[in-house]
């Protein structure tokens, strides 16, 4: 449900990032409340820029607890922008708007896809099936995209699955591996080095340069995983490869949730 | 017949770059773009392009390009050596940088060594006919996007030209090489200068730092005295602006440049003033710099003054080869120059 809350009474800090950006820091901890404020300001500034106000603002970069505002010093200045943004923060920001609910298919069954499942089960005192169930039950939320294009830091992992990163990171993690570490899950958009625990794989590509929107996930998305078997995986993978997969089918409506 | 430049031999690090890909950092997409935006901007202006037109960023050693178009106007900006041959097998004659040149079908442009800077630029009038990715032609090789198939040039590549032939007009040259300024690199403290001890901050601005071999489009690792942390070397990841200077636990600064990741978890002691970013984009391993703090407002003023100087340099372009004037290239080619210009009078 969309709800509008007023987030006044916020003590924010403005941190300099040279003369082309500054960071609005809402706090120094990871919490849904703080991230909610970050996302609310991200959306408010996006709308303002889209509407042609706040001239000189180029883009904003949300993270767990702060928002970097990037600007063109030839068109505006820090002295001009900071009070305008502070007025927005103090005036209260609408939150909880237009949150997308996404369900991502994930295959946990193939040992090739889930090389760390047994290890995670052993270290958390669960059976592999219980690990999968806990991952499926986790109410995930996309906090940040970064490190590489399309790589999402997704918090909300069921606490009984918390583990530190692997002591021995892999040199090659296959594309679309679904992994967990600490209180988060992620999906590798490219084959790359990585130190998280691989417990499954999605047939989707988190970065597909052929698409108009090459990155599907966005900060603020609510997310759950949906278990699929290997046959379903292969079917979706073929459509993703061919560019015929219907990405809008991943977005859940309230009726789906009911 | 389509117009193109054919890559007969590739250089070491040739990528197409414009001024960067903006608006997608929230999706984890780095901005990429020219390491030295001033040189790209001047190269574009020399051949009549808008500043944000994509050109070829050349590092260390440039490519050999065969003209497969009726004609094309190019401009070369930066400390590079280049030559032109009438045909692939014909002898080369040197051509000057910091000016435009009109090239004809079948001529071979050889871009040689780039010396004293890590980057130089080649622009073509009208730009390249390649599809933009997320609104930009900037090559970001890690994700394989932008430019030509998201990678550096390779032998046999065809760079399609947007214009089948060069527009009419005179060749232009810079009045003098652009003055990037000397002395310390100006920085603004923050965003996490409070993660360092007072002694650590002093070390940072009072020491020489040398560019290590680990220097590329993503960033430059410096060698020098270690900078003392006070609150540890981990933060909850936040956004990384251009020129951010992160200091991991080992205490040595890393300046993050065009291909930097969008967010990161090391504290950033300071950020390079945008006016001095092109200087960072030119540094080579072994170069030594110092950092000098300025305020945000001072850094903004530096940038605006620099932009005015760039505009002035463009307004003062000179005609490179006036009609009826001396064609230096031709004189070199015909080996007449000794007798005509530089002949030293012999003793009586």
Outline of the structure:
With 258 residues, chain A is an alpha+beta fold. Chain A is built from 6 helices and 13 strands. Chain A has helices at 32-50, 78-91, 117-124, 128-137, 230-242, 254-257; strands at 13-16, 21-25, 57-62, 66-71, 101-106, 140-145, 152-155, 170-173, 177-181, 184-187, 192-194, 197-201, 222-227.
Radius of gyration of chain B from the CA trace? 22 Å
> What class would the helix/strand composition of chain B place it in?
alpha+beta
**Strand residue percentage of chain B:** 25-35%
3D shape of chain A: globular
What portion of residues of chain A belong to β-strands? Answer: 15-25%
Task: Report on this structure.
The complex is a heterodimer of chains A (258) and B (348). Chain A is of the alpha+beta class and 258 residues long. Helix content of chain A is 26%, strand content 25%. Chain A is built from 6 helices and 13 strands. Chain A has helices at residues 32-50, 78-91, 117-124, 128-137, 230-242, 254-257; strands at 13-16, 21-25, 57-62, 66-71, 101-106, 140-145, 152-155, 170-173, 177-181, 184-187, 192-194, 197-201, 222-227. A 7-stranded mixed sheet of chain A has the order 5-13-6-7-10-9-12, with helices on one face. A 4-stranded antiparallel sheet of chain A has the order 1-2-4-3, with helices on one face. A two-stranded antiparallel ribbon of chain A has the order 8-11. In chain A, strand 3 and strand 4 (66-71) form a beta hairpin. The longest helix of chain A is centred in the N-terminal third of the chain and has 19 residues, at 32-50. The radius of gyration of chain A is 20 Å and the shape is globular. Chain B has 348 residues and is α+β, with helices and mostly antiparallel strands. Chain B folds into 2 domains: 4-178, no CATH class; 185-304, Cyclophilin-like (Cyclophilin), CATH 2.40.100. Helix content of chain B is 16%, strand content 28%. Chain B contains 6 helices and 23 strands. In chain B, the strands form 5 sheets. An 8-stranded mixed sheet of chain B has the order 21-14-15-18-17-20-13-22. A 6-stranded antiparallel sheet of chain B has the order 7-6-9-4-1-11. A 5-stranded antiparallel sheet of chain B has the order 2-3-10-5-8, with helices on one face. Chain B is elongated, with a radius of gyration of 22 Å. The chains are: A alpha+beta (258), B alpha+beta (348).
């Amino acid at each position: 449900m969309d709800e509008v809350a007023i987030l006044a009474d916020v003590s924010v800090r403005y941190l300099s990032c040279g003369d082309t950006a500054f960071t609005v820091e809402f706090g120094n901890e990871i919490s849904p409340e703080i991230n909610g404020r970050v996302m609310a300001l991200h959306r408010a500034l996006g709308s303002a820029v889209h509407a042609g106000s706040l001239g000189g603002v180029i883009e904003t970069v949300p993270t767990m607890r702060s928002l970097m505002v990037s600007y063109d010093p030839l068109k505006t200045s820090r002295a001009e922008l900071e009070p305008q943004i502070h007025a927005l923060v103090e005036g209260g920001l609408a939150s909880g708007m237009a949150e997308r609910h996404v369900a991502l298919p994930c295959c946990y069954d193939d040992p090739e896809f889930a090389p760390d499942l047994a290890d995670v089960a052993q270290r958390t005192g669960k059976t592999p099936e219980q690990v999968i169930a806990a991952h499926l039950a986790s109410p995930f939320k996309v906090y940040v995209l970064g490190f590489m294009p399309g790589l999402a830091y997704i918090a909300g992992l069921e606490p009984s699955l918390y583990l530190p990163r692997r002591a021995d990171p892999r040199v090659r993690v296959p594309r679309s591996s679904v992994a967990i570490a600490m209180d988060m899950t992620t999906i590798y958009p490219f084959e790359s080095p990585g130190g998280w625990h691989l417990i499954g794989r999605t047939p989707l590509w988190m970065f597909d340069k052929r698409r108009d929107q090459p990155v599907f996930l966005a900060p603020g998305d609510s997310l759950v995983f949906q278990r699929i078997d290997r046959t379903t995986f292969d079917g979706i993978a073929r459509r993703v490869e061919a560019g015929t997969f219907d990405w809008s089918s991943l977005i859940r409506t309230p009726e789906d949730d009911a | 017949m389509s117009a193109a430049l054919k890559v007969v031999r590739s250089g070491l690090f040739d990528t197409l770059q414009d001024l960067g890909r903006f608006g997608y950092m929230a999706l984890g997409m780095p901005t990429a773009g020219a390491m030295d935006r001033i040189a790209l901007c001047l190269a574009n202006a020399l051949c009549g392009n808008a500043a944000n037109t994509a050109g070829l960023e050349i590092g260390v050693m440039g490519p050999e390009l065969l003209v497969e178009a009726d004609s094309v106007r190019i401009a070369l900006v930066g400390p590079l050596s280049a030559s032109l041959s009438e045909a692939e097998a014909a002898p080369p004659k040197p051509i000057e940088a910091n000016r435009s040149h009109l090239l004809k079908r079948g001529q071979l442009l050889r871009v040689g060594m780039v010396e004293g800077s890590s980057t130089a630029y080649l622009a073509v009038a009208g730009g390249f006919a390649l599809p933009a990715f997320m609104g930009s032609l900037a090559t970001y090789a890690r994700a394989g996007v932008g430019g030509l198939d998201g990678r550096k040039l390779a032998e046999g590549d065809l760079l399609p030209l947007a214009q089948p032939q060069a527009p009419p007009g005179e060749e232009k040259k810079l009045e003098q090489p652009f003055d990037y300024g000397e002395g310390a690199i100006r920085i603004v403290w923050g965003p996490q200068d409070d993660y360092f001890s007072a002694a650590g901050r002093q070390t940072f601005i009072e020491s020489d730092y040398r560019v290590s071999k680990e220097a590329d489009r993503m960033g430059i690792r410096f060698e020098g005295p270690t900078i003392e942390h006070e609150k540890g070397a981990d933060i909850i990841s936040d956004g990384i602006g251009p020129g951010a200077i992160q200091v991991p636990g080992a205490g040595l600064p890393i300046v993050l440049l065009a291909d930097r990741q969008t967010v990161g978890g090391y504290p950033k002691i300071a950020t390079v003033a945008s006016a001095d970013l092109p200087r960072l984009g030119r540094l080579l391993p072994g170069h030594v710099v110092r950092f000098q703090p300025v305020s945000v407002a001072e850094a903004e003023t530096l940038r605006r003054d620099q932009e005015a100087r760039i505009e002035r340099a463009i307004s003062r372009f000179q005609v490179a080869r006036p009609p009826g004037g001396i064609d230096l290239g031709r004189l070199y080619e015909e080996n007449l120059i000794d007798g005509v210009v530089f002949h030293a009078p012999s003793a009586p």
